[in-house]
Amino acid sequence: MQLALAFIARHGKLGLIAGLVGGLALPGVAAMMRPWIPELVAFLLFLTAFRIGPVDAAGKLNDLTRTARAVLVLQLALPLGFLMLLKLTGLPMTPLALAAALVLAAPSVTGSANFTILLGHDPAPALRLLILGTALLPLTAIPVFWFLPEFGDLAAVLAAALRLLAVILAAAGLGFALRHWGARHLSEINRRAVDGLTVIALAVVVVALMSAIRPALAERPADLAFWLAAAFGINFGAQLLCFTFLRATGRPDPVPTSIVAGNRNFALFLVALPPQATDPLLIFLGCYQFPMYLTPTLMRRLYDPS
Q1: Which one, of 43, 120, 107, lies nearest residue 75 by Cα?
Q2: How many CA atoms lie within 13 A of 136 on its CB side?
Q3: What is the pTM (predicted TM-score) of this model?
Q4: Please, are residues 40 and 225 in contact by the beta-carbon 8 Å criterion?
Q5: What's the first-to-final CA gap in the chain, in angstroms?
Q6: Sign of CA dihedral 139, 272, 268, 253
Q7: Phi and psi at residue 264, to the nearest 5°
């Protein structure tokens, strides 16, 4: 079993692509799995925390300070700068502009540390950004909401963020505890086996998240193509700009932060939007899975040019 999981880990990028294909080819399975997304995400977080361990995840004091600064830039400075630019230029708040603002204001997706692992970099900074970014969302979201009258209820988003934070802390805490008391020194083959199990979990999660894509492909292919191009542009554009800036300023290992910059859990905000605003964003959410799950494949040349 360990060897089989290690083999899957070695071909993790193909596993993620298989999940995308499965989400398109099996709409019935995707719809059936959609109610299980919270449990699947929690299991994924548990595996990630177990793989990293509490010591590496906590890091040093300067790591936590750097993480807090990164969260404030990613979730506060960037969306506010984008919204103020729209206001100064007189551009309207179109669905595309709203989607971009929500992405910039959101915390990391739960799979960011896993994508970092698949790219061969330290996943601990990405996990710290996930936990701290979700914890600070109730604070960073308030100024952003002030610029977005399209939103209805800020309390709904804050409640959703707190629920997600509770899931993250419970799943990560359980993973850290099991690693600390059950497998403090993880061998390389066991580490690769955990990576393989994580790839399977990621592939299953993306099938569940793709349930809105197949109907849009059949009924509104032009809209789907537009939102797919927008998803790639926003996700990969944010990663490219972040990586270029961090590398130019000499930051150590800019890859985890760059991955988080483009891969955000903006679905948290959908609970506060009125129904007439959510339809295009639901399609965008499905399209957003493509650049997200193709990050380890398509961004490898940027992050590991050797």
Answers
A1: 107
A2: 22
A3: 0.85
A4: no
A5: 32
A6: negative
A7: -120, 150
Task: Judge whether 115 and 294 are in contact, CB under 8 Å.
Answer: no
Chain Cα centroid distance, residue 301: 20
Q: Within 249-274, where are the H helices?
A: 255-262
Give dist(CA 191, CA 177) in Å, integer: 16
β-bridge mates for residue 44, sequence order? none
Tokens of 140: 């960073």
Task: Give 190-241 pLDDT, tens digit per residue.
Answer: 878 887 888 888 888 777 777 667 777 777 888 889 999 999 999 999 999 9
Could you tell me which of 18, 45, 277 has the C-alpha nearest to residue 170?
45
The band of 29, judged by pLDDT with boundaries at 50, 70 and 90, is: confident
User: Which of the 8 DSSP states describes residue 110?
Assistant: T
Query: Is 37 in contact with 268 (CB distance < 8 Å)?
Result: no
- Give the dihedral sign, CA 44/225/32/165: positive
Q: Which two tokens stand for residue 116?
A: 């970092």
Would you state the structure tokens that stand for residue 254, as one six-digit string? 């800019």
Measured CA distances, 254 to 22, 110, 186 (Å): 32, 18, 26
CA nearest neighbour of 116 among 104, 106, 130:
130
For 241, the enclosing helix (H) or strand (E) is helix 221-248
Residue for token pair 């919204």 = 83
Q: How far apart are CA 292 and CA 242, in angstroms?
A: 16
Domains of the chain: 2-298 (1.20.1530.20)
Which tokens belong to 142?
């308030």
Question: Can you state the angle between helices 2-10 and 188-209, rounded to 10 degrees?
Answer: 60
Q: Are 236 and 291 in contact (CB under 8 A)?
A: yes
